[in-house]
Design brief:
RING-type E3 ubiquitin transferase, 19 helices, coiled coil, about 425 residues, three-stranded antiparallel sheet, 4 domains, Herpes Virus-1, 3 strands, I/LWEQ domain, Adaptor_Cbl_N_dom_sf, ubiquitin protein ligase activity, mainly alpha
């Protein structure tokens, strides 16, 4: 409908306005704004096509591209809001977080590019001017994707993270680089920011009880300083216990026996339960759940019929195992009980169970914990007068914050 095209135009206006308030990552945000403006010409051409034909609905082949534009523009606007936030004043601290923002922008622009590709092959709009707008916008999107993120800046961020996390490494050599990449006004400003980060980190590490009112912000800040590229989680070994399913039959996200296994087309070629992987890719379309590495394009997967046959055969031979109730609580059960808990003991037990389930190498469980809604009840525990609840909630949130999108969710919940 013409209404959808109108929504896209309104989102473009929001992006352009929000860009004026951006405080950091101005180069990347400008690229995203320019992509939005190039899409505006295409969308206006679509509206003109509708007006000329006097139609109340979109011609066939135009609805899906507009949905791509809408979704991509929403994500661009979210990143611009983060880059325009007052929390973005401390540029060096944000430098440590820039890879996440760049990844989100890349995914958003990829969605817009996908819509433009659909338009290029569409026969719904035949005007030469329309096709020319679409081609130019797609070329612009391709060029932008090649330039994002700034790899040199990411290297600087990784070096600073390493220095902040290792007292034997001095961050002094990076002062000039901070100035060079516009994250400090001069070397004195760069030195001041680094000293503040080091002091904040030392104070946070000494604060074992996490008991003051600014706790949530401190937990988020500590997680920014502590982020490392997580190594791939070690898959559970094939069980030697009689009747236990082999590890290849277990989904790394749900930790349960798979019913409908699909294989992700990445280097790992890991298989997952279809519904669990679909939910994960809805949140992270370019990210491998096992390695936590983002690709340049959205990931795809396919049914693993061979594995499904092996699982069905195993199930037929192990009916007794399938009839046994699970001993360990899964993340969804923990989340449900945590959210419904009315007494302190249940809240503590569920928060501790979640803490144990989300060890430092278990990235999929951290994602599942957020998707299942554990962050809001943990933040409420954090603000309780009960010191024990606040301590356990803080430690659990700190573990969850090792995943980038969890950091944003924790900050928003606070």
């Amino acid at each position: 409908m013409a209404e959808l095209a109108g929504i896209v135009i309104a989102l473009i206006d929001e992006v352009v306005k929000k860009y004026r308030e951006v405080k950091i990552l101005k180069k990347e945000c400008k690229e995203a704004r320019d992509i939005a403006q190039s899409v505006e010409e295409v969308t206006l051409s679509i509206l003109e096509t509708i007006r000329q034909e006097g139609a109340h609905t979109l011609p066939p082949g135009l609805g899906t591209p507009l949905n791509h534009f809408r979704d991509g523009l929403k994500e661009i606007n979210e990143v611009l809001c983060l880059c325009a936030s007052d929390k973005a004043k401390d540029k060096t601290k944000v430098l440590i977080f820039t890879k996440t923002y760049s990844t989100k922008l890349r995914a958003a622009i990829s969605k817009i590019k996908g819509g433009l590709e659909l338009l290029s092959g569409s026969h719904a709009a035949t005007s030469f001017e329309f096709q020319n707008y679409a081609r130019k916008a797609m070329e612009r999107a391709n060029e932008t994707l090649e330039n994002l993120p700034d790899q040199i800046r990411d290297i600087v961020a990784d070096e600073i993270k390493a220095a902040l996390n290792n007292s034997k490494i001095s961050p002094e050599p990076f002062l000039d680089k901070l100035v060079q990449h516009n994250f400090a006004n001069d070397t004195a400003d760069a030195k001041r920011q680094l000293q503040e980060l080091q002091h904040e980190r030392e104070s946070l590490l000494a604060d074992k009880l996490f008991a003051d009112k600014e706790l949530l912000e401190k937990v988020c800040n500590l997680s920014l300083l502590d982020i490392h590229e997580m190594p791939p989680p070690t898959p559970p070994p094939s069980s030697s216990k009689l009747g236990q399913p082999p590890s290849e039959f277990i989904c790394p996200i749900t930790r349960d026996l798979m019913e409908d296994p699909v294989t992700l087309f990445t280097e790992s070629h890991q298989s997952y339960e279809r519904t669990a992987l679909e939910k994960f890719l809805d949140q992270h379309p370019c990210r491998d759940p096992m390695t936590n590495v983002d690709s340049l394009e959205p990931l795809i997967f396919g049914t693993n019929k061979h594995l499904k046959s092996k699982i069905e055969l195993w199930k037929a031979e192990h009916v007794s195992f399938l009839s046994k109730p699970p001993i360990d609580l899964d993340i969804a059960t923990i989340a449900r009980r945590l959210g419904a808990a009315t007494d302190s003991e249940t809240r503590l037990n569920m928060a501790l169970a979640l803490h144990d389930a989300c060890d430092n190498r278990d990235m999929p469980n951290k994602v599942t914990a957020r998707v299942c809604g554990t962050i809001d009840p943990l933040v409420k525990m954090l603000n309780n007068n009960d010191g024990r609840e606040a301590e356990v909630a803080a430690k659990t949130l700190l573990k969850l914050s090792r995943e980038d999108d969890n950091q944003i969710a924790i900050a928003n919940a606070g």
